[in-house]
Design goal:
Blueprint: H1 17-68, E1 89-90, E2 103-108, E3 118-123, E4 126-127
Antiparallel strand pairs: 1-2, 2-3, 3-4
Length: 142
C-alpha cells in the first residue's frame, strides 16, 4: 500500500522574516497613534481631580458666607474635610475683599504626560480660565 506524503513541506511552516517585520511595523504605527491619546486621557482624568476638588471648595465657601457673612480665609475653616488632591499642590485662599470674593489655585508639577506644569484657578464664580494655565485639551466639560 502506498502512503500519502504530507503535501506541505517543512520549508513553508511558520512566518517569514519579511512577514514578521511587516507585523512589527504595523504594531509600531498603532502604538505611536495610541500612546499619546492614552497619555492625554490619563492627564485629563488627573485634571478632572482638580476641578472636582475646587467645585467642592466653592460649595463649602458658599455655605460659609451664608453662615458668617464672609468667605473663609483658610481651608480648615470650611465645613468639609477632604484630602488634598493627589496630583496637585493646593495654594492658599486669597482675596481683596472677603465679603465679596475669593480665589484658590491648584498647581500640577512634575510628570504630566508632556503637558508641563500647569495651574487651575477657581473663585466664587467657578473656573477662572484667564488665570489658569491648564491646556485646553485637559479641561473637562463643565
Amino acid at each position: 500500500m502506498k502512503t500519502l506524503k504530507n503535501s506541505t513541506s517543512s520549508r513553508f511552516a511558520g512566518f517569514s522574516f519579511f512577514e514578521m517585520t511587516i507585523v512589527v511595523v504595523i504594531l509600531g504605527v498603532l502604538a505611536m497613534m495610541a500612546v499619546p491619546r492614552y497619555q492625554t486621557a490619563v492627564e485629563r482624568a488627573k485634571g478632572a481631580e482638580a476641578f472636582t476638588y475646587l467645585a467642592q471648595i466653592e460649595g463649602a465657601q458658599e455655605r460659609h458666607i451664608a453662615r458668617t457673612g464672609e468667605y473663609a480665609q483658610q481651608l480648615h475653616h470650611l465645613d468639609i474635610k477632604m484630602k488634598a488632591p493627589a496630583h496637585f499642590t493646593v495654594g492658599n485662599i486669597t482675596s481683596y475683599n472677603w465679603q465679596t470674593q475669593w480665589e484658590l489655585r491648584l498647581t500640577r508639577e512634575g510628570a504630566s504626560s508632556g503637558f508641563g506644569a500647569y495651574s487651575v484657578t477657581w473663585n466664587q464664580d467657578g473656573f477662572v480660565r484667564s488665570r489658569s494655565s491648564i491646556h485646553t485639551d485637559l479641561i473637562p466639560v463643565l
